[in-house]
Structure formats: structure tokens, C-alpha cells
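Schema walk-through. Below, the input block comes first and the output block second. Nothing else is stored per chain. Lengths vary across the set, and this one has 356 residues.
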Amino acid sequence: MKKQGWALNVKAVALAAAFAASTCGYAAAADMPVKAPPPPKAVPFFFVNDTSVSFTYFPNATDPGVTGANHLNQYNGELDHFDVWQYGTNLLVASFSIYSNGAPDQGQLGAQGEHEFFGLWRSTIGLNEVTNSKMFSNFLFTDVGIEVGGNSDITNDFLSAQDTAAVAGLNFNLNLPGTVLVSILAYKDYAHNEFDACGANFGDGFPGISPCAAGTAAFNGDRYFKVAPAIEASVAEPLTFLPWPVTFHDNVGVYFPKGTGVSAANTFALAAPGAAGQLAQLQNEETKTEVNEDVRLTLDSGKVFWGKPGIWENYVGYKYWYNKFGTDHNAPLFATLAPSTNIESSVYVGGTYHFK
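--- output ---
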């Protein structure tokens, strides 16, 4: 969103040159030969157009609700694309992860570790850019944007989890050193997992998952959550006081409670008989505030070792994910049956190659 001023300057210079040539060029030509100036360089549609691949190793990942899945090795490959154009930005992420055997495929003991695919999309439209003005700039922020996006997650674990979400809101580019972006969003989530299924489709064959109570209809495990507020923030700060090209990154997402996504009738149908069972099931289903933070230091290795900045990067970081996917760490499932599986705390290392 900051690049439009450069584009306008290029256009202004080109128009000024054309105007000067049209009004003065004929008289100058009568006096002396004048070489025509080269045509102005075309402004590219994308000011920034970056596509990269990354590999990251997390030695302490988790899988919520899966017994013993609180110290997993996670091997993650990622394809990212980011671009900036005249009116805004686009970010696309496609991520594929393989986990260690502590969380096997389909929950089958002895199988290889589960596989997960995650996709994310975020786009912004800058209001200063659309209005060709500075009316959305002040001492607090340099621009305001409209942001839309979504994400999807599929895992072939014991729960056969699937999750799809959409977001929309405002993005603020704060008037601070480096790049500091804060988004205030409305968040709508749809999910499915087989833990929340009952009847013939899954629950009858596994201990600890009750079939539907007598006289109730089968429930397939689909969940439709309420619209909830969310805050996403991103910081990129070059550490210019260091002798090496190192950048500090901090990405934070806060997603507020979104209900159970399950009707009261289906919640009670899933519960063990009696009031205690119903209370425990309600606690397991109710979502809580989710916090996901990723902090890393990135070294421009291409510049340091090969004199080619912006090609190769290496990083070390720390990820903290509290109440993962909105699950409540105090609920019976996550406190007793599968403790510590929905709070992830892991250092990590990795590298990125940018296609240039």
C-alpha cells in the first residue's frame, strides 16, 4: 500500500516531460538538434511480486484431543506468494505438514504420522490508494485498508478434522518504524471432526466416544460456529544495529470464543448418561479465546554468503499456540484424557528460498 506514491511520481514525471516537449520542443528544434528523450519506463502492475518455498522443523508440536500427542515432531513445507499492486496486497500460503508417529494416520497404531494441509488467503485494498488521497493517514497510522480472506485445514488424524474459515474487516498500517500491521476482523468458522460424530458413522467403533443416546438422530460431526471477533497483527523490523542483515518478525492472532458450533440436542446426544456427562460434554465443546504467536529472527543468508540479497533466508523462532483451534485446556477432554495437547510451545528452525 505504500508503493502508490512512487507510481504517481513516475506518472507525474512522464506527464511533465510530455507537456514540456509539446510546448517547447518545436522552438528548440529550430535552433539546435535535440535528441528525443527515451520513453518513460512502464510501471509494473505488481510493485512487489515474491514467491518462496520454505522448510521448517518443529520438535514439540501437538494435536488437540489425541492422547499422547503433545510432543510431536512436525516437518513442514510451505509455498508462499505475496504481491503489492496499485490498490493493495495479496498473500497466499499453501502448507503441508507430516507429524511423527505419536499421532498416526487415522489414529491407527503403528501407522505413519498424520498429514495436514493448510491454506491461507489474505487481501487488502488501501483506502488512501482507492481515494488517491491521504485522508486515512494521521499520527497513529499511515493507511487503512479493507481486508478479506479465509483459511482451510484438513488433517487425516483420528478426528479426521476439517476446518474452513472466512474473515473480513479493517487493516491498519501503524505509523511506527519497520512494518507494523494490525487487523480487526470478523471471523466465521465451519468445522468437522469425527470425535463429534455419533451413531453408525464413527463413534460406535471407538472406546470413549459414545453413540447417540437412544431416541436421538445421528450427528455427523459438522459444526457451524458463531461469527466472532479476531485480531491479527504482523511486525517486521530490520535490526540495523547488528552487523548482519537480521530481521525480527512477530505474527500474532487472537480469536475470541465462537460458541460450540453444535446444537444443544446434538451436544446432549453425544454425552454420557446423566447430568455429569452432559456437563462434561458441554465443557468439551465450548470454545475459548485462542492465541497463536510466531516469533522469529531471519538472517539474509544469500547476502551474507553469496552477495545475493533476498534469495536465501534462514531463521530460528518460537511458536506458542494457546487453546489451539479454540479448544478449552480446562475441559475434561483436554485436561484429563489428552492433557497438554491443545497448548503448543515449540522452538523451530528453517529456511526459505525466494524465486527471483
